[in-house]
Design brief:
The complex is a heterotrimer. Chain A is an alpha/beta fold. In chain A, 32% of the residues lie in helices and 25% in strands. Chain A contains 19 helices and 24 strands. The longest helix of chain A has 18 residues, at 187-204. The radius of gyration of chain A is 25 Å and the shape is globular. Chain A starts with a strand and ends in a 19-residue tail after the last helix. By secondary structure, chain B is an alpha/beta fold. In chain B, 67% of the residues lie in helices and 9% in strands. Chain B contains 15 helices and 5 strands. The longest helix of chain B is centred in the middle third of the chain and has 32 residues, at 176-207. Chain B starts with a helix and ends with a helix. By secondary structure, chain C is α/β, with parallel strands linked by helices. Chain C contains 14 helices and 5 strands. In chain C, α10 (260-285) crosses α11. Classes of the chains: A alpha/beta, B alpha/beta, C alpha/beta. At the B-C interface, α3, β4, α7, β5 and α8 of B face α2, β4, α6, β5 and α7 of C.
Chain lengths: 607, 373, 377
């Protein structure tokens, strides 16, 4: 896979280059282990007045590349030139001329917005006279003018990120380096952040190098570089990428009596289909080259309508990346599909008036919902919306301030330990015993749920098969590659065949491939009658849920099926709304659950 | 049966985590032994090589005889001979000598004339303990010298006939090292147990695994047992190694019964596990648990009677110190090692420990679930 | 702008940030000010080598005349709390039960023997488990007996005199009060802890919270980072030190005979060495947890056992003495004892101060070496 696909339009002139990397290699030496090659011969250019996007799966080398450019790491070989200066020799000079925003921006939580800005202004040597006008512009761009005296720790996730950006921009840098600036940020703040970036690019003509996991963001960049396992897989304008999959993308609209999920489950496992997703209630597929018959056959089987669609960057990206898990995915699902069962309408989870206060702060307000057996129920909202709090209350980890909870007939906070044995729980962060081996972890959780030795043996074999963990069984869990960690965590949660599965942000920090694999699996389990409650801040993932609850700052914004939610945002301007659109409309108050958008959505931020 | 299986799984897991985590291993094995040996040598009030200077203006046979007795003792080490008065303050000020023995010019004559002679001793009071003990030694040397004078016929008697006959029980030669080392093992194994257990819950909280335990069908009691056992096993092991080390390395006598020793250590370690788990259950991060255990350890050790006697404290502090578990084990260990105590004799020091444990352990178990945010 | 002005601006920024953080984060203030005061208060009372009201059993059937006088002497002494018992076996039982620490035995013919000018023993049995305490008790007893002899002599009772007597003078601490010795030592112990913990935690905290990465990609020089970390915590530590010294002088009535200048200069050196040590650990380790652990194992325990704070170093084996030279607290214990009790004796202060200065330079230098503007070493 070392051959770089050269797409037309990839050539850039050297005259206005703000950043250039030449044959960059970076190897991390780890004690007692083979050295990890993070970057393998990267060469790229980033120009002023342009946004250069770096996309790729986790571990592709995005962060390493940006850190080398910022002078935080020294390349093993090759060089990076930033604003005409060498990143190793002239580190300090570069650092006074770039704006850098790491993934987890180092705001001082105890300092106010203004004090944080003062600090960076002092560090960057911004003269006192220039500060007033600079601050004014930055605060206005970031909508933070009203909050200058508020401590950074008390800001919402999106505001923190904007403040981070303001600090990085304090001395009109020649180039802005952004490392996944929008992870975990709600859709409104995401749009605002990008608006600021584009304003700077257009008005001030600075260059931006940004890494991102959001493929819709990459689509808006002027130039995109796709990294895969430390190498450049392709680069060019988003259009050149999309040209590659032109004519290979179609959408399947399910017939009256079919759910998009069933069609999706089927299509995702077909050979020659490179990618399948549910988008706006329809199944979107990308077929392999010259093989557009597959979709039509499948569509006919489900009495669905298939239409060609314009490709987007995500389609192109998914078609581009070589995948090794293809075979495995198909096998798993083949045992699960076509087993669609009747779903008894039995309510297994019910809350009413659920409220949680931490001191004066109301994390969850008057929440009521119910989940039926075999449903996939999604809790959606940006970071800090209160999803995890609800989750922890459902699992009995946290006491509710008011209201009632019933999970499989129990309030898990008060019931006996046995009541928890029919539950599976997968926490947000990887939470297995890192020092213990894969096998030891599974055995521990099996015994914890009271499996007999015979059952345990059977289930271990199932887990090794199902999640392809056999070859990793002796390896310490903490040392597994990211995707396998997630699989192991899921295997541990499923070992005792729970009736209800709780998944807290299972796809956070997981690359697009692992996310697709994950949803496919979850769909399979739900088809078999397992009830799944899942939280996520990726709005588009809501499409995979049967029903969902959208929330923001502890309050319920809307609840319903994906179609119902999307319909809320339908307007002349957006005939095909996404869940993202719906969230923005809901959060900005231009519509509510009872009163759909009336077409007058002038408040919405358009780029 | 099912419960037993779960506890067993939990215990195996706890041991695996400790043995595989370099940080925990570090806490359990390496430093405690080094500390035991280094501090075992360092902790002593027995004086050796106390530097002294002599200003002998008499320069007579008798004065030399007295000085020879001083030099012959292992406690003192001569650091200089002075020739004038000003040097006295020089030697003391500069800490060149901690004592100056000044024998006046008339020493010999006075004694021969059967009049009492005075020997002046100046001690550096910056360390009053050393000063007092050294002066005590010097006093007994002078008393011996007086007896010598009687025997030699230089003087007739050492009357007024009142003299002190000293005897000490349990530690005839007054070796303070015995006193410290018998308790040192308890103190160091306590530090191990506290660090180990205080990390156990907090670490799981920090890595998120504790939620997994709480969501699994474990009862708080089962988690408590699973979390306690490794601490108890490692703590007891350390403590017994230190006890053996005290006897075979440092030569401390062991006069009590092994049963009493094991029982006392077991009670103590269980109590410490309770404290450690309580600290751990209260903290959300390893950082907090470390600070928390430190806040407990500092006063607990300092006020345990390990280095300075509890009896010397003001009464209010002695009363407050009754809740300090460490004081009980220190007394119990000393009584077992040096006084030959058996189980009934140390029981008064054990039940307070069990009461403390019966508060901390259930409280910790309750907090597992209720201290969750 | 000139380089100097830019430097000052960066320094101002980072100092202001650290100061605001300290002011708003109660934990650093608690660590630097509250903890030392509380510990000093508890330890100042709790750590005491002077025995008072030692329970002793006196066996004396003969309470008339001279024996009664001697008994009265013991009762008057502040060091003893006397229990009178009739028989020796009764007294030995009390000793065994730890109800008394010593038994003083006056034989039945005590008075007659003494009056007739015979050698008259006063028997003393102490519980030797705490050897130090036993020696103190012996010492107290001896001085009671000696004083009593002197009185007898003055009254003309009994015959003769001891040929040689000791005239003791204890300089700097006339009454040999152990608090004068303990409290300055405890200040050293507590400040060691504060100094190391403060800095060990702060730098590691910056790495963990991710604030360091954003700071590194600014024109901040390594020296700016170092100064920004040392100056505020130096001031905070000195504040704790000042309060501790005030408490020592006012509450515990420890004499302070040195000069304020000397105290400030020397405690600064000690504080810098401690801060430097903590900074070195945290810059090298980058994980708060391990940094704190190392600070305790390498900072607190040695300062307790190997500094001469409680245990006399010169009486320890050679190798312990050699190890103790690496412990900064050792030098400041010597300095504070001299400053409090003796005064500005530069012959003691200077060499110890120089070693501290050397250590401060070494530790801060190593910390500086370990501060890097890159993420990798």
């Amino acid at each position: 896979m070392s051959t770089t696909i050269h797409l037309p339009g990839a050539d850039v002139t050297v005259s206005d280059t703000v950043l250039s990397a030449d044959n960059l290699h970076k190897t991390f030496a780890v004690k007692k282990k083979p050295a990890a090659q993070a970057l393998r011969g990267i060469s790229l250019r980033s120009r002023s007045g342009q946004v250069t996007g770096v996309v790729g799966a986790d571990g592709a080398g995005k962060t390493t590349l940006i850190r080398i450019a910022a002078g935080l790491l020294v390349p093993t070989s090759g060089s990076v030139t930033v604003l005409g200066l060498d990143s190793v020799a002239d580190t300090l000079e570069i650092q006074s001329r770039v704006g850098y925003m790491p993934q987890k921006f180092g705001l001082y939580q105890d300092l106010t917005v203004e004090e944080n800005m003062n600090l960076y202004a002092d560090l960057q040597g911004v003269p006192g006279a220039e500060r007033a006008s600079r601050y004014e512009r930055l605060l206005e761009m970031t909508n933070l003018s009203e909050y200058t005296r508020r401590r950074a720790g008390a800001l919402s996730g999106g505001m923190k990120q904007k403040l981070g950006l303001a600090c990085a921009l304090i001395k009109s840098p020649g180039i802005l380096l952004l490392d996944e600036p929008t992870v975990g940020v709600d859709p409104i703040s995401r749009r605002e952040l990008w608006k600021i970036v584009y304003e700077l690019v257009e008005k001030d003509g600075i260059g931006v190098l940004v890494s991102t996991a959001y493929l819709d963001e990459a689509e808006r960049c002027s130039h995109v570089v796709v990294l895969h396992q430390g190498e450049i897989l392709a680069e060019g304008t988003p259009d050149t990428f999309m040209q590659q999959v032109k004519g290979r993308v179609s959408v399947v609209t399910p017939g009256k009596n079919e759910t998009p999920r069933r069609i999706y489950t089927h299509l995702a496992t077909q050979e020659h289909i490179v990618d399948a997703t549910i988008r706006s209630g329809r199944v979107r597929i990308v077929t392999a080259r010259d093989n557009d018959g597959v979709g039509a056959t499948a569509a006919a089987r489900y009495q669905a309508v298939i239409e060609p669609a314009d490709p987007n960057f995500e389609d192109a990206f998914m078609a581009l990346i070589p995948r090794t898990e293809q075979r495995f995915q198909k096998r798993v699902i083949s045992t699960l599909s076509d087993t669609g069962q009747l779903r008894p309408d039995k309510v297994v989870i019910r809350t009413s008036g659920l409220t949680k206060r931490f001191g004066a702060f109301e994390a969850v307000k008057e929440l009521s919902f119910s989940v039926k057996r075999g449903e996939i129920f999604g809790l959606l909202g940006p970071n800090g919306a209160g999803k995890s709090t609800i989750f922890r209350m459902l699992c009995g980890l946290l006491a509710a301030t008011a209201g009632e909870i019933s999970v499989a007939g129990h309030d898990l906070r008060r019931s006996r330990a046995q009541a928890r044995s029919r539950l599976g729980y997968m926490a947000q962060q990887f939470s297995l015993y890192g020092q213990m081996s894969t096998r030891e972890n599974l055995i521990f959780f099996g015994k914890a749920y009271g499996l007999t030795s015979k059952e345990l043996r059977l289930r271990l074999n199932w887990a090794f098969e199902e999640f392809d963990l056999k070859r990793w069984q002796g390896r310490a869990a903490g040392e597994l590659p990211g995707g396998y960690k997630q699989r192991l965590a899921m295997a541990a949660a499923l070992l005792h065949e729970p009736d209800i599965l709780f998944l807290d942000e299972p796809t956070s920090g997981v690359d697009p491939f692992a996310r697709r694999e994950f949803w496919l699996r979850i769909n399979g389990f739900a088809e078999q009658g397992m009830t799944v409650v899942v939280t996520t801040h990726f709005m588009e993932e809501a499409e995979y849920c049967d029903r969902m609850l959208i929330m923001s700052r502890g309050e319920t914004l809307a609840m319903g099926t994906p179609t119902e939610i999307r319909e809320l945002a339908r307007s002349p301007q957006t005939p095909q709304p996404t869940i993202d659109d719906a969230f923005i409309a809901l959060a900005e108050g231009t519509m509510t659950m009872n009163q759909p958008a009336n077409g007058n959505d002038s408040k919405r931020v358009e780029r | 049966m099912n419960s037993l299986r779960r506890i067993l799984a939990l215990v195996i897991k706890e041991f695996a985590v400790i043995m595989k985590d370099p940080k925990s291993r570090f806490v359990v094995i390496g430093p405690p032994l080094i500390q035991f040996i280094v501090f075992g040598y360092a902790a002593t009030y027995d004086l050796q090589n106390v530097r002294y200077a002599v200003f002998d203006e008499s320069r007579s046979v008798l004065s030399r005889q007295l000085l020879a007795k001083v030099e012959g003792s292992t406690v003192f080490l001569q650091a200089g001979a002075l020739s004038n008065h000003t040097q006295i303050s020089e030697y003391i000020d500069n800490e060149d000598a901690r004592l100056v023995i000044h024998i006046g010019p008339g020493f010999d004559r006075t004694l021969q004339a059967s009049r009492p002679a005075v020997v002046q001793v100046i001690a550096d009071g910056r360390n009053p303990n050393v000063a007092m003990i050294a002066l005590g030694y010097l006093g007994s040397i002078v008393a011996e010298f007086n007896q010598d004078l009687v025997r030699q016929g230089v003087v007739e008697t050492t009357a007024p006939g009142l003299f002190l006959v000293e005897r000490s029980w349990f530690n005839t030669n007054l070796e303070s090292r015995w006193f410290f080392i018998s308790g040192l093992g308890g103190v160091i194994s306590m530090v191990v147990v506290i660090l180990l257990t205080s990390l156990s819950v907090a670490r799981e909280r920090e890595f998120g695994t504790f939620d997994q335990l709480l969501v699994a069908p474990f009862t708080p009691g089962e988690i408590l047992i699973g979390k306690s056992l490794p601490g108890i096993v490692f703590g007891l092991l350390d403590a017994l190694i230190f006890a053996a080390g005290a006897v075979y390395w440092f030569g401390v006598p062991f006069r009590g019964t092994i049963t009493a020793l094991v029982l006392a250590l077991l009670c103590f370690i269980i109590t410490m596990v309770g404290v450690g788990l309580l600290v751990s259950a209260l903290s959300m991060t390893m950082q907090q648990s470390l600070l928390g255990s430190f806040i407990f350890l500092m006063p607990a050790v300092t006020l345990s009677g390990f280095a300075t006697p509890i009896e010397n404290m003001p009464l209010w502090l002695q009363k407050a110190d009754l809740v300090n578990p460490v004081r009980y084990i220190i007394i119990a260990l000393r009584r077992i090692f040096l006084e030959g105590a058996d189980t009934p004799m140390i029981w008064p020091h054990l039940w307070p420990l069990l009461i403390i444990a019966s508060v901390t352990l259930p409280l910790a178990a309750w907090l597992f679930r209720h201290r969750a945010v | 702008m000139s380089r100097g002005r830019l430097f000052m601006m960066r320094l101002r920024g980072i100092l202001r940030k650290e100061t605001l953080q300290i002011l708003r984060d109660p934990s650093s203030i608690a660590l630097a000010v509250v903890m030392p005061l509380v510990l000093l208060f508890i330890f100042g009372y709790g750590v005491n080598l002077d025995a008072e009201h030692v329970p002793v059993a006196i066996v004396g059937t003969d309470t008339s005349g001279v024996a009664g006088d001697l008994l009265g002497r013991f009762e008057l002494s502040p060091h003893f709390e006397v229990f009178q018992v009739k028989t020796m076996s009764e007294a030995e039982k009390l000793l065994g039960l730890r109800h008394v620490d010593a038994v003083i035995h006056l034989q039945t013919d005590f008075s007659t023997k003494l009056r007739s000018g015979q050698q008259t023993p006063v028997q003393l049995i102490v519980n030797g488990i705490d050897a130090n305490r036993a020696r103190l008790i012996e010492g107290y007893c001896r001085s009671v007996v000696n004083q009593f002899s002197a009185i007898l002599r003055a009254r003309g009772e009994g015959a003769g005199y001891p040929p040689v007597t000791l005239a003791q003078r204890i300089w700097f601490n006339e009454d040999a009060q152990s608090k004068n010795f303990m409290v300055p030592g405890l200040i050293t112990l507590i400040m060691t802890l504060t100094g190391i913990l403060l800095t060990a935690l702060v730098v590691a905290r910056e790495w963990e919270r991710g604030t360091m990465e954003a700071m590194l990609v600014t024109p901040l020089r390594r020296i700016d980072i170092l100064l920004g970390k040392i100056l505020p915590y130096y001031l905070l530590g000195m504040l704790g030190m000042g309060l501790s010294v005030t408490v020592a002088i006012t509450l515990f009535k420890v004499p302070f005979r040195g000069s304020l200048t000397a105290l400030i200069i020397l405690s600064s050196l000690f504080m810098l060495a401690s801060l430097g040590m903590g900074l070195m650990f945290s810059a090298a380790i980058r994980i708060q947890f391990v940094a704190a652990q190392v600070s305790i194992v390498a900072g607190y325990l040695p300062a307790f056992f190997l500094s001469g704070l409680i245990f006399d170093l010169e009486s320890t084996p050679r190798f312990i003495q050699i190890i103790s030279h690496a412990v900064p607290a050792r030098y400041f214990v010597a300095i504070s004892h001299t400053l409090f009790m003796a005064g500005d004796l530069w012959s003691v202060l200077l060499p110890n101060g120089l070693v501290l200065a050397g250590m401060a330079v070494l530790f801060i230098g190593l910390a500086f070496k370990n501060i890097t503007k890159r993420l990798e070493r």
